[in-house]
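Posting this for the archive.
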Amino acid sequence: MTLIINDAPYGTEKPWNALRLASALIATKHKVNIFLLGDGVAIAKKGQKTPTGYYNLALMLGELVKAGADVRTCATCLSARGIEAHELAEGVTVGKMLDLARWAGESSKVITF
């Protein structure tokens, strides 16, 4: 399955719910691809300082990578926001629209958030 996340990390709960779904899919033995697009690329920025008790999406993303998810960010979207590859959470790869196109063609389902 491929999940596309477009929303900024903390403006709504959509990205958080997307990562929760990704975790559940991995737990049920599904292959998960996550493509961060638009403002969603900020989810992968390491060094986020969230209030105590508040979820940290970069840390959640890192756990998903460790569990086997393939996570990529849109290179064009990163550039537009001034985020460089070295600023991304460990295991997150800079991707291209061609990667997303390939995933969409290969996946049984594509879900957008």
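The chain has one domain: 2-112. The chain has four helices and five strands.
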